[in-house]
């Protein structure tokens, strides 16, 4: 009976791990769909803004209030999109390049697009470029090198 208990315990643990992984995949998929929805909504708002602008120029009517409302809506959608992209990057274990904004693997030292140095993380601490240079100088000043 003890062997069956061990098998049952191991099987249960395996199912839990698979369930968590599946949950993570589903969460990432939900985030990706939310990103696609917001991009589609942005596209629709930009088309509406273009039509209003065209109509204003064609007829000479003042549509400033409508255009301003659409611009505010677009700005809010961009904020939501940025937040979703950040959440997705965290879920996928990626970091954003501070120079060009491309997401890279978390363990990357340099950006895959622009080549900028990414922040170096060590034991949940982030070091600035100056701190890294100071640390390198300290090491170079030591006699045993």
The number of helical elements comes to: 3
What is the percent of helical residues? 55-70%
Helix-strand pattern: HHEEEEH
Portion in strands: 5-15%
| Overall mean confidence score, pLDDT | 79
Give the tags:
single chain; 145 residues; mainly alpha; Methane Monooxygenase Hydroxylase, Chain G, domain 1; 2 domains; two-stranded antiparallel sheet; 3 helices; 4 strands
Folded structure, characterized:
It is a single chain. This protein has 145 residues and is mainly alpha-helical. It has three helices and four strands, in the order H-H-E-E-E-E-H. Strands 1-2 form a two-stranded antiparallel ribbon. Strands 3-4 form a two-stranded antiparallel sheet. A hairpin with a 2-residue loop joins strand 3 (120-122) and strand 4 (125-127).
Task: Give me a quick take on this structure.
This protein is mainly α and 145 residues long.
Outline the fold blueprint.
Elements: H1 2-59, H2 64-91, E1 94-96, E2 103-105, E3 120-122, E4 125-127, H3 129-141
Helix pairs in contact: 1-2
């Amino acid at each position: 009976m003890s062997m069956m208990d061990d098998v049952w315990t191991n099987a249960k643990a395996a199912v839990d791990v698979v369930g968590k992984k599946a949950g993570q995949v589903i969460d990432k998929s939900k985030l990706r769909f939310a990103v696609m929805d917001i991009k589609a909504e942005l596209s629709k708002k930009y088309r509406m803004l273009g039509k209003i602008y065209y109509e204003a120029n064609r007829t000479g009517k003042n549509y400033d209030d409508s255009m301003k409302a659409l611009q505010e809506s677009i700005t809010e959608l961009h904020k939501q999109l940025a937040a979703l992209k950040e959440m997705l990057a965290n879920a996928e274990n990626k970091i954003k390049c501070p120079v060009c904004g491309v997401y890279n693997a978390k363990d990357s030292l340099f950006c895959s697009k622009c080549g900028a140095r990414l922040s170096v993380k060590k034991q949940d601490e982030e070091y600035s470029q100056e701190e890294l240079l100071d640390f390198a100088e300290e090491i170079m000043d030591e006699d045993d090198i």
